[in-house]
Amino acid sequence: MVARVVDLRSDTVTKPSDAMRAAMAAAEVDDDVLGADPTAQRFEAEMAATMGKEAALFVPSGTMSNLIAVLVHCDVRGSEVILGDNSHIHVYENGGISTVGGVHPKTVRNNPDGTMDVDEIVAAIRSKDGALLYPTTRLICLENTHANCGGKCLTVDYTDKVGEIAKGHGLQLHIDGARIFNASVALGVPVDRLVKAADSVSVCLSKGLGAPVGSILVGSKAFIDKAKILRKTLGGGMRQVGVLCAAAYVAVRDTVGKLADDHRKAKVLAEGLKKIKQFTVDSSSVETNMVFFDIMDSRITPDKLCQVLEKRNVLTMPASSKSVRFVLHYQISDSDIQYALTCVEKAVEEILTGGGKLEHLANGTTKNYYGH
């Protein structure tokens, strides 16, 4: 009998559905680097239409998608991009825009709701009078939903306003929309309308949508033509990629309609965690599929809690030295949530009564499998 595992580390952990596997096996394929894979072509055309853009490009990962976008927009040495100080591009993508692209990041403080103050964005734009001394601002990046801010949604009004600022200053706007469909569903705004102001958008297919691999990058035809060259430069050109696009097509077709239920389950989980007195969680701030909670008892650390939960086959991820992150996806059931809550309560009790010993490694560090 297979042991029950409730995996709340991320929405990237889903397994391909039977429908995805069948579509992969039956996919009509050819060489996509030569522009000949029919399944990839159909999927890219459909995603471009869905997102309201002229063209689309399938790429192996969201990190590559964002990197390509920044490099296309900032194709002149000495370029600068304005982005949030807590954004995924800035924090979790190996500094690729700088190390690979030579693009200078200009960070603006992210608010708890994932936005950056509009006035601070404007203040961060370099004056053309300082071109001799300073980098040249060419791009603004937003993230929707904003992962480090708890899966918060950027509204269409806010996005439009930032788009107006970009256009008024001759800049481009890129949206890291890894979970843009979560935002669209939560806000009740069609996804094409939500990203209308953006010149480019990266959409992750392997997070909440549940595809096994890939992201899609959308923009104008001229933008995607340049992006295709950079994808090849970065080693992202794949051959019979239709087998992956077929799974991604099924993911978009079948899973977008399930995202609202993921959001509902996240609320249920947050309400349950709220009842545990050692934690604080603002359930009203849970907008999509992420739940962050702070640990108020100094005897309990995120590492220790996650390790004790792992013994009970509940997999979780520390978010900081004082907080833990749970992420919902369509393969987590209501029963799984109740089981996880029971395990969390038992783990807290075990730690407080001295049963939860944190395992130490030979080098003196604590054992923690969960990186961002």
UniProtKB/TrEMBL annotation:
Keywords: Lyase, Pyridoxal phosphate. It catalyses: L-threonine = acetaldehyde + glycine; L-allo-threonine = acetaldehyde + glycine. The modification N6-(pyridoxal phosphate)lysine is found at residue 207. GO terms for molecular function: L-allo-threonine aldolase activity. The keyword Lyase applies. One of its GO terms (biological process) is L-threonine catabolic process. The keyword Plastid does not apply. InterPro entries: ArAA_b-elim_lyase/Thr_aldolase (IPR001597), Low_specificity_L-TA-like (IPR023603), PyrdxlP-dep_Trfase (IPR015424), PyrdxlP-dep_Trfase_major (IPR015421), PyrdxlP-dep_Trfase_small (IPR015422). Coiled coil: none annotated. Its EC number is 4.1.2.48. Pathway: Amino-acid degradation; L-threonine degradation via aldolase pathway; acetaldehyde and glycine from L-threonine: step 1/1. Residues 7-294 form the Aromatic amino acid beta-eliminating lyase/threonine aldolase domain. Its cofactor is pyridoxal 5'-phosphate. One of its GO terms (cellular component) is cytosol. It comes from the Eukaryota. PANTHER family: L-THREONINE ALDOLASE (PTHR48097:SF9), L-THREONINE ALDOLASE-RELATED (PTHR48097). Threonine aldolase involved in threonine degradation to glycine. May play a role in the removal of L-allo-threonine. NCBIfam families: GntG_guanitoxin (NF041359), PRK10534.1 (NF007825). Belongs to the threonine aldolase family. This is low-specificity L-threonine aldolase.
